[in-house]
């Protein structure tokens, strides 16, 4: 049962990573990813190593997003 909850939570997390909610800026996106990772850890669905991996992935997405801000790059 926990394996199903873990898989569903991670699937939702990675879907959010790839597809931010409409109207969400990069800081809101990053905050929501961190909050979701914290909630999974708090619920015991992921361990510390998995939490750190999610945080690294969120940080990478945030870094890519802010590199594009003000650079004239338009994402579609």
Features:
76 residues; mainly alpha; 72% helix; 0% strand
Helix/strand order, N-terminal first: HHH
Shape: elongated
Report, as a whole number of angstroms, the end-to-end distance: 39 Å
Average pLDDT, all residues: 90
Strand tally is 0
Strand content: under 5%
Strand-pairing-aware structural class: mainly alpha
The percentage helix is over 70%
Rg, Å, rounded: 14 Å
If helices are DSSP runs of H or I spanning 4 or more residues, what is the number of helices? 3
How many structural domains? Answer: 1
Poorly predicted runs of 5 or more residues: 72-76
Question: What would you note in describing this structure?
Answer:
With 76 residues, the chain is mainly α. The protein has one domain. It has helices at 2-18, 26-42, 48-68. The chain is elongated and about 40 Å long.
Topology record:
Elements: H1 2-18, H2 26-42, H3 48-68
Helix pairs in contact: 1-2, 2-3
Offer a concise description of the structure.
This protein is mainly alpha-helical. It is built from 3 helices and no strands.
